[in-house]
Amino acid sequence: MLAALVIVFREVIEAGLVIGIVLATARGVYGRGAWVGVGVLAGVAGACLVAAFAGAIGEAFAGSGQELFNATVLLVAVLMLGWHNVWMARHGRAIAAEVKAVGDAVASGARPLAALSVVVGVAVLREGAEVVLFLYGIAVSGSDTLASMATGGTLGLLLGGALTALMYFGLLSIPARYLFSLTSWLIAVLAAGMAAQAVAFLQVAGVATALPSTVWDTSDLLSEGSVFGKVLHTLIGYTDRPTVLQLAAYVMTLASIFILMRLFGTTARKQALA
After folding, report:
1. Which of 196, 218, 250, 255 has its CA 20 to 30 A from that of 81?
2. What pTM was computed for the model?
């Protein structure tokens, strides 16, 4: 539930900021709300289409190389989560500036109102598609049940929407950089846990045979099947009996994401100051 909550919360905030910027810069333009609403609906419809295809692909592989399919889905999710953090570290400021420019152009009459729908629709579709694929990765890892994922996703949607609305109306002042820094840390840890879980599937399938030794056994102290163990497994990828290869995948994934975020984030800041 917690992983779903974090991911949905982060994506809703990102889409919400785009919508907020568009609404703010196009303030006073007649019909802006309707066009933004059309964009939101189109983006949601596109994300639902992605969800339908993801489910169909999963059913097609059921019972046929399921471990390999699960590992592939998890690795794709890891790459997307990592790249998402790195990409936002580099392009976050530029996106906000471009969205504001579109809103200003519509407000001045230089661009048609339909441009608002396009910008909002693309943002909602992008974030919605990422939510679908990330949650599908959580599902195949066995970290959460569908009911808990639905609960976490709903809470993330409500919290993200409420926080975005409060920030838009000026009732809550939270520097976006702090908000995204916190969620970026959480997402990076989630990605590392997924990488370790993908390795576990590959080991079960007999594909990954290197470094099979168990690093530690804390099943007596904190079982992965216990309530707290499940929470830690979901949030930080805790495993009570990890292999050397699983631990290596975890550490390498986490280190790679943070190094790339710092590298590209520093480059983006230098370019902004230039």
Report:
1. 218
2. 0.62
